[in-house]
């Protein structure tokens, strides 16, 4: 059952169309990713869902509510962490949590949330004195403090170090496990692949592909890459003739074979027959990054 429904959404700024006829549903309890490069229309779409921008055309519904007409009711069930936010410079972390908690009938424990996000030691710190990563974690806490049914997270982990990013991912997975629906806007492919149940790939204001990360990765032309340094001379043409191989190239003293699961087995069998050892053998599978590049490149060619 969709909790977010977007139909025929358009948003224009002068002569530029930022969102161009976008339609999608977000199922209750899933993490739905909006993935794209800068200027693809991701943030504008999220802001229309959050009620922060009025669509020029189309409809948006969140739990049956119109984000513009039903703005007050929407604030009780939707939390948002925006791409750019500010607080009063002298406000402390504790004061911000207490203030935002006062806006909701049944807020969560702000101190416990701050501890979970690594802000427990900074409760008395003023906003202006927080690092960029700490400010980002505070805004995530403020988006969650109202115990929302839906939370919109725009560029969730920008500014966080690798450890902070992974701790935040774990928190989001816990939130989803509790039944909260997450609309995640990101350009981090690893983040989308790790967290999202489904992903919409945006390009130039349109959705070019929508599916699970696995479904999108399966659309890539190259599913597996095998690279190695042969212990003896090996004709690249012999590799090109193997089943499942799409391309063979040299990278200095290494051979790189692009293909699929069948090609991996064929390459290893050929090396065994020829008595050639694959030194520094590496086998890497395609990622959402590869899928994104393939999908957006193919759309530009059509």
UniProtKB/TrEMBL annotation:
Residues 4-229 form the ABC transporter domain. InterPro entries: AAA+_ATPase, ABC_transporter-like_ATP-bd, ABC_transporter-like_CS, ABC_transporter_ATP-binding, P-loop_NTPase. Its main location: membrane. Keywords: Antibiotic resistance, ATP-binding, Cell membrane, Hydrolase, Membrane, Nucleotide-binding, Translocase, Transport. Pfam families: ABC_tran (PF00005). GO terms for cellular component: plasma membrane. GO terms for molecular function: ATP binding; ATP hydrolysis activity. It is found in: Cell membrane. Its EC number is 3.6.3.-. PANTHER family: ABC TRANSPORTER ATP-BINDING PROTEIN (PTHR42711). This is ABC transporter ATP-binding protein. It comes from Rhodococcus coprophilus. The gene is drrA_7.
